[in-house]
Design a protein that fits this description.
The protein has about 140 residues and is mostly helical. It contains 4 helices and 2 strands, in the order ααααββ.
Length: about 140
Amino acid sequence: MMPIVSLSHLIVLPFLIFICFRLYVSFQKQREKNVGYFFLVFLMLIIMEGVLESPGLVFRDPIKISTVFAVYPFFTFLSLAFAGALPFSILKMRKTELSFLALMFIAAVSVTAINLNNVLPPATYYRPPFIYWEDTRG
């Protein structure tokens, strides 16, 4: 069976790596904090996509696949945190920027902890030649 969703995440990964590499090079030249935030946004997206491509390609055990579904939101939240901090950085609202980053980090850790506390086997759908997994925690 071919894990089509995992393969689609694997296809997106090289594009994100290319963008992240370009942002990293730009950040090394300019040392601009906002470019660094963009770099971190794409770095977290790369980690998220790397985690999401693993069901079926790396892991086949339902509990490990469910753990993947529990962990990937952490990186999604961090990506959103760095993207959301950009406007505060541009407007030079340093305290608001740091508060926002701290709250988003707390939210990321909280959601991940709640998800990891409730690991259930995912729903598995077979549509030959494809296989899909769906998170069953709601």
